[in-house]
Amino acid sequence: MDLPTQTFALVQKHDGYSGKAEGPHIESLELYLDAAAIPLQALSDGQVLIKMAMASINPSDLHYIKGEYGHPRVKGAAAGFEGVGEVIAGNGDYAQSLVGKRVAFTVDPAGSGSWAEYAITSATVCIPVREDMRNEDAAAHVVNPLTAMAMFDIVRKAETSSFIMTAANSQLCKLLTALGRDHDIAPIAIVRKDEQIAHLKELGARHVLNSSAPDFADTLKAIIKQEKPRVMLDAVGNQISADVFAAMPNRARWVVYGKLDPTPPQFKEMGQFVFMEKHIEGFWLTRWFMSTPLEEQIRVIGEVQARFVTGQWETEVTATIRLSDAMSDLANALRSPDGKVMLVP
Amino acid sequence: MDLPTQTFALVQKHDGYSGKAEGPHIESLELYLDAAAIPLQALSDGQVLIKMAMASINPSDLHYIKGEYGHPRVKGAAAGFEGVGEVIAGNGDYAQSLVGKRVAFTVDPAGSGSWAEYAITSATVCIPVREDMRNEDAAAHVVNPLTAMAMFDIVRKAETSSFIMTAANSQLCKLLTALGRDHDIAPIAIVRKDEQIAHLKELGARHVLNSSAPDFADTLKAIIKQEKPRVMLDAVGNQISADVFAAMPNRARWVVYGKLDPTPPQFKEMGQFVFMEKHIEGFWLTRWFMSTPLEEQIRVIGEVQARFVTGQWETEVTATIRLSDAMSDLANALRSPDGKVMLVP
Prior knowledge:
Radius of gyration of chain A: 20 Å
Low-confidence stretches of chain A: none
Number of helices of chain A: 12
Number of strands of chain A: 15
Largest sheet of chain A: 7 strands, mixed
Order of helices and strands of chain A: EEEHEHEEEHHEHEHEHEHEHEHHEHE
CATH architecture of the largest domain in chain A: Alpha-Beta Complex
Largest interface: A-B, 31 and 31 residues
Shape of chain A: globular
Oligomer: homodimer
Distance between the termini of chain A: 20 Å
CATH topology of the largest domain in chain A: Quinone Oxidoreductase, Chain A, domain 1
Helix content of chain A: 25-40%
């Protein structure tokens, strides 16, 4: 079979960092990407070429194409960190052993992005996918589910009977909510719209609060008094997050994993670090991969697939958009806060 | 010998917390204390009565009498957390075994404060003092030296070759500076006045920066690039602290142990928690006592006494004030930033 030497893709228009911190909101895709055919590099040792079936879109992708992520953009390279597809070529024994398999994967900086017809990544980050797993779940196998599993592990080790999530209407928080439900650690979800409350309760949240409600501060205070949550998993990093943290009890941990709101928060209660043993830390999945033994990663991946196949988890999709329609349709599709947007070739 | 049934003391005028966070600056002592004779309670089991030789004044005392500390004020009770004196009575075998000994001590909430002729505390927190140790060093044996030892332990475990201190002209930071010098971990001191620079360099600081100098940000950046400090020991908790933390490298730890500046800092770089593995925590000596095995406490106390007696450490005293002069003279004496103020009966 002749291998493709180029791919249609959503291609980055900028190099490096923007120096801004606007958050992942996208006004127009044209500011950051072009739809174009780009050449595919020859596979290095250990790399695989993947014919894409479906790519997911995560907040980290949007932070990245805007130049606000942990590593710099590369002009002319395809965007997209995650997806599922069939391995059609490999360089090296292990890479070749994957040919013909459906794999979920993330793209490392040496590869070529998933928002494309063809992607390139390391064989070692490819996860063979069970036949009974939907493409919708497989395309979003890595970033959200492993982040959910790893952060829920922080919650479990904190010996708390409840935990708080901000921006809780995200797919990630829906996974976390189900984990809380299944392990009897009460999820306390903070959202920004009343219409998001019912579904999160259905998924297992014990409390769902609307941070724009006039009685938010009082309700939060009462719930914190009742549930004593010691962990906040926070994707927002704004003043509301800081105020929630200040209302939490002794030994509370603020785990930052995103910065949806670019406004810098003010810390009014520095003394709580001293007298209440509180602390602030971050979570980044990249570091989890670097610091977690492979065996443990494989165990967690198996659990992720089982949760999707048995219906304990479900990736909720609000739109599936063809690559060729992305420039016109994607930014608008991303405005719906209720589920993920998928890209297909 | 007849035991005293009352003591002259500096007595608190208020109960509980003030609800403010002004910091330890004292405009007038009258706002918080009276000089008066108060009755001495009968000794409970395990308590000792101490005839004071000298009491120290720490920022934590000032936070406390202002109602801004980790536990509430008690109206009518003597102030003062720390001092040295002779045990003249004890209730219980161990307490009685200390009678006649010179001890350094802190006062627990069940006792009676050290800014007095007589103080009461638990025998278990009394530290018999070597004969060759000066009262000036013994009166300040516990709070600063043990905080210095415990926080320097955090620095050592962080595997860093340098560390940053704010409000570095304090007695505590002078102790930390000497520890850095003796263990070859470079102290980087931040002060607010040029005239404080020379003495800190003399004590062993590798760099001393004046945060009010116009080139502070640039100098700091250059020094951080050169020394890569991973720990900041911070008594201030203001915007300068937050900006220093933001300039620090990967895996930097901000250890808050005081809040000298009541202004709340803004966090402009929340993404650093995620991508740079930074975190914020606090240090409180009370917790160190609760979480450190007694054997280790005794080892550290022995090292503290040895450091003072051999001259590796010295408590620098700027004023020694009689209790009966405190109401008129103390607030003014505390304005000198260059050393400690001691109280004597």
